[in-house]
């Protein structure tokens, strides 16, 4: 599902928070979006997913402008998972039912996939942070999205959950799902990324294949970022 | 003597208690059927006049029961616009008055709860393309514990109020006499044992309502459903 972004701009309160981004993403696999805190990564993801209306510019998926129909083939995992006040299993059931796909077998498969089979009946909000995020991932995968967005899903999670989530994403990407993954963890970007999009002050500073990016980033900001220097 | 009446399950006493519960529970049911969807609607939709509606809902929460009784009386009295229905001095009239009294409570309190939850869920739901009706249903279900305490608050108010039911019910023996109106009457007549017995029952109901609300809150926090 190739993505074409043209002059994408978001202005809030007179500030150009996303400042005329143009790019295309045609490669399958995992595209990692990086950048300092406040660079606009979360807003960029929301714009791509059509959760926030842009001030100017356009987003096209396989030639189609963003719409509810387009969003139906996408899913998103947020930084803090928003889970329903129900059991883990019921959270998946809800998502399946919304899409008219409800089946107990599919739900059990999804819980199995993220290692939560044993916790199916546990109230979702009593799960640990890592378990909650794995549940959110299972829920996002329930609609078999063509595009999956993740906004720093593993920040502050236990290593086992991080490993399981990364493994699940690699599996999904291998099956042809397009994944757009925001992280500011350089190690994680190295492990997952097929390509890196580096944002700075609401602009795309650089878009390169991961190997090239980590060998030598083209922009000085990204260079500084990788070296752990602060750029204001 | 008051305890004696209770212990022997005095027939008149039981009739009065039964009618009280029937009137207030029916009013509660209708109020929930109107108030919860209304609360959910205002919680999830942005429309012109919404703030005005909010102010109105909150103001109506404090409606004095006697005023509600008076208004319903005027509508239902023989010369009133709904006089032909001949409902004045019937349990139905009492149910109508109490419904008017507590619907704003159910609507306003549930609106607050549902709006907070809506704020939390809305982006996730938008991402999942959850249709509006499914969203409302999800909010009502996920807020079930908090909403039950709202219902209990409404029930507590209706079972204990006297001003509205005495005006539209008339406190007619074996027909519209409920606990609060009976207490008022028996006290003025000097029949204190019956008044005390009813007072005790009311007190127990109030305590039970509060205990139940407490249990709800405990359950909600135990499952992190608050
Ligand atoms: N709703 C909003 N209103 C105003 N400013 C916002 C809003 N959301 C984000 N911002 C600002 O936009 C900038 C980018 O935010 P964000 O996309 O969350 O950054 P990142 O995810 O890269 O850390 C930040 O300076 C942030 O304060
Ligand atoms: Mg962010």
Could you explain the architecture of this structure?
The complex is a heterodimer of chains A (232) and B (226). By secondary structure, chain A is α/β, with parallel strands linked by helices. Chain A folds into 2 domains: 27-50 and 67-73 and 145-232, P-loop containing nucleotide triphosphate hydrolases (Rossmann fold); 83-144. Chain A contains 9 helices and 10 strands. Chain A has helices at residues 41-49, 68-71, 88-98, 104-113, 129-141, 159-174, 186-192, 210-215, 220-226; strands at residues 3-12, 15-25, 30-34, 56-61, 64-65, 74-77, 147-151, 178-182, 195-200, 203-209. Chain A has a 6-stranded mixed β-sheet, sandwiched between helices. In chain A, strand 1 (3-12) and strand 2 (15-25) form a beta hairpin. In chain A, helix 3 packs parallel to helix 5 (129-141). The radius of gyration of chain A is 18 Å and the shape is globular. Chain B contains 10 helices and no strands. Chain B has a single domain (2-112, 144-224), classed as Orthogonal Bundle (MetI-like fold). Chain B has helices at residues 2-7, 11-44, 50-61, 65-76, 91-127, 132-142, 144-160, 163-169, 179-189, 192-222. With 226 residues, chain B is mainly α. Chain B is 79% helix and 0% strand. Chain B is globular, with a radius of gyration of 20 Å. Magnesium ion is lined by residues 41-42, 151-152 of chain A.
